[in-house]
Amino acid sequence: MSGQVPRHGHSQPHRTPSSCPVCDRQLEVTRLGCSGCGTELAGLFEQCRFCRLDSEDLETLMVFLASRGNLREVERHLGVSYPTARQRFGELLERLGLGEPAGRRPVDRDQVLADVASGRITPEEAQRLLA
User: InterPro entries, from UniProt (predicted)?
Assistant: First the structure.
């Protein structure tokens, strides 16, 4: 039998919170427990980097993976222009620790201008992308 067994009367397990509800700092995993035998482990455990993503980021990542890396599919799924989809995916990679900081990523100026000319993005969006 695969999947998680509901505990304490809950029908679905809760997503692990990633930030403190009091000070908003990143939470650390310090305790693990076995629901079968009651064994508990205490210490400082590394948290899964994918577990820190919000549901929107996870959905974007799933679309990207399901489309075998096709950013045009991500573009259609998000309902945004290709440069915006690329920027959002770059930001997702950055949150995962896999991308360059936002200020260092090159933007294809010609593609952005072509998207403005075709009406795919607004001049304001182009200005933000090129800033």
Answer: DUF2089 (IPR018658), DUF2089_Zn_ribbon (IPR053957)
**pLDDT tens, 55-86?**
888 888 888 898 898 888 888 888 888 888 88
For residue 116, give every residue at least 6 positions away whose Cβ sits within 8 Å of its Cβ, in sequence order, or none: 122, 123, 126
Q: Is residue 32 part of a domain?
A: no
Domain assignment of residue 111, yes or no:
yes
Q: Is residue 19 part of a domain?
A: no
Phi, psi of 25 (to 5 degrees): -75, 160
Helices and strands: H and E segment counts in the chain: 5, 2
Dihedral pair phi/psi, residue 32, rounded to 5° = -125, 145
Q: Kindly state the tokens that stand for 94.
A: 């950055």
Decide if pLDDT at 101 tops 60. no
Domain count, the chain: 1
Q: Domain containing 104: what range?
A: 51-130
Q: Does any domain span residue 40?
A: no
Percent of the chain past pLDDT 90, that is, above it, reads 8
